[in-house]
């Protein structure tokens, strides 16, 4: 159990500190060799990204890493790059509402949470 906690601590630290790599459709952070977390997006225009999917490797799900990934990506896109966001991903929609008012005014609220 202690070994697992140490591994998760290292994975969480990597998620918080490793660089965000942007491709044409993904923002990716390497968790460890061979394991990445990412948010898929569609570029709406020069100032707006639609975030469509969040992915954490199966072996790390349920450990709070999705929330850490969401915070890191929101801070990167909103705080550092001053972009607007649309949220098609339900996980990110829930994260947004749980963290209000932190990102209010930067997310286009064209969705509802059931």
Automatic annotation (TrEMBL):
<feature type="domain" description="N-acetyltransferase">
    <location>
        <begin position="19"/>
        <end position="108"/>
    </location>
</feature>
<protein>
    <recommendedName>
        <fullName>Protein NATD1</fullName>
    </recommendedName>
</protein>
<dbReference type="InterPro" id="IPR031165">
    <property type="entry name" value="GNAT_YJDJ"/>
</dbReference>
<dbReference type="InterPro" id="IPR045057">
    <property type="entry name" value="Gcn5-rel_NAT"/>
</dbReference>
<dbReference type="InterPro" id="IPR016181">
    <property type="entry name" value="Acyl_CoA_acyltransferase"/>
</dbReference>
<comment type="similarity">
    <text>Belongs to the NATD1 family.</text>
</comment>
<dbReference type="Pfam" id="PF14542">
    <property type="entry name" value="Acetyltransf_CG"/>
</dbReference>
